[in-house]
Amino acid sequence: MASETRCTSCCSPSRAAKASRTGLPSAGPVPEGKVNHTIVNIPGGRGLIGTKTPRIENDGEGPLRPTRISPFRMTATTITNAEFAKFIAATGHTTEAETFGWSFVFWQQVPDAIGLTRGVAGVEWWRRVDGAIWSAPNGPGSEGACLPDNPVVHVSWNDAKAYAAWVGGRLPSEAEWEHAARGGQGDVAFPWGDDEPDDEAFTPCNIWQGDFPHFNTAADGYQTTAPAKSFEPNAYGLFNLVGNVWEWTADPFRVKSLKRSVQARLHAARGFKVSKGGSFLCHRSYCYRYRIAARSGTSPDSSTTHQGFRVVWSD
After folding, report:
1. 213-270 pLDDT, tens digit each
2. 311 contacts 35 by C-beta, under 8 angstroms
3. How far apart are CA 157 and CA 309, in angstroms?
4. Dist. CA 48–CA 67, nearest whole Å
5. Is the bond into 213 cis (omega within 30 degrees of 0)?
6. Own/partner pairs, 30-33, CB within 8 angstroms, 24+ separation
7. Is residue 67 exposed (0-12), middle (13-18) or buried (19+ Cβ within 10 Å)?
């Protein structure tokens, strides 16, 4: 089994090579009627970032610290395939997955017709699939998996930033994302509070249930992505802030630590961006990052079947 070079955490593999960025469309309001986002007003004031009870300390989850947040608006869901399709049709934007000619697909999603694929060293469940893009998320012939109401995936940070600019918005900061996810509840672990999801009775979000990466019972109802507007929203009316797909933020991935191992990892992750929220592949035994304070760093040109984004606008 051939393997790609592993250069980041097991949550979201990153490309080892770099490609030139596609040009960003001019920022500005979307022509009326082009995209009808559901937008939520997020109050400003005293916010929190981090946690006093970090679970993965080397990721920089703690400490809990206050921060001042200005009011802003946020899409109630991650951007959907239908919304992203309008962006592509209007701008002709070429995603970085299309530019590279391939993207990462979770092994269970790879169609049999694809044949042999290469994996990421140490996390071989991530497969490099030629032709995997947002409109054919599992590779050529999988256009039927691009459901209009599901989160768009295979979008890099650069792609997400381009869409946000097109609608006159931007990607949220990590502090804004956490403030929105908390829904005014303070230092809670999840958007609904502190109750821990399990593999059977309590499934408030779309994560993995069972034995990762071999068998997913789909007790929450989904083997892969759920519709962007599913499960109960948090107190601010935001859907799927944890689980389903990772969400890009505007911020660089940094960790304050004196540990040599952490510093070495950060050196290899120069230029990486913070993602929040975890995905449908997260499980407490493997990737306990479906918590508000959890975070991951990924190269801005990377794309996978579990990476999406939402947009914010400053008031």
Report:
1. 999 999 999 999 999 999 999 999 999 999 999 999 999 998 876 677 767 766 666 7
2. no
3. 9
4. 6
5. yes
6. 30/166, 30/167, 30/168, 31/90
7. middle
Phi, psi values for residue 6, rounded to 5°: -85, 125
Taking the model in full, what pTM does it have? Answer: 0.90
Q: Give the whole-angstrom CA distance, residue 128 versus residue 28.
A: 35
Maximum average pLDDT range among 5-9, 242-246, 296-300: 242-246
Query: Which token pair is 25?
Result: 């469309």
**Would strands 246-252 and 307-308 be described as parallel, antiparallel, or unpaired?**
parallel
Sequence-distant (≥ 6) Cβ neighbours of residue 76 within 8 angstroms: 37, 38, 39, 40, 229, 233, 237, 238, 239
Number of Cβ within a 10 Å radius of residue 93: 18
Q: Which two tokens stand for residue 267?
A: 């050196």
| 251: its two tokens | 């911020």
DSSP track, the chain: --EEPP-S-SSS---SS--PPPPPPPPSPPPTTS----EEEE--EEEEES-SS-SSGGGT----EEEEE--EEEESSPPBHHHHHHHHHHH----HHHHHTEEEEEGGGS-GGG---EEETTEEEEEEEET-BTTBTTSTT-GGG--TTSBP-S--HHHHHHHHHHTT-BPPPHHHHHHHHHTT--S-SBTTBSPPP-SSS---S----EETTTEE--TTS-SSPPPSS-S---TTS---SSSSSEEEEEEE-------HHHHHHHHHTTT-EEEES--TT--TTT----STT--EEE-TT--BTTEE---EEE-
* Cα Rg, the chain, nearest whole Å: 18
CATH number of 37-93+136-314: 3.90.1580.10
Q: Which two tokens stand for residue 22?
A: 């596609």
Q: Which long-range contacts (CB under 8 A, 24 or more apart) does 267-271 make?
A: 268/7, 268/8, 269/7, 269/8, 269/297, 269/299, 271/299, 271/300
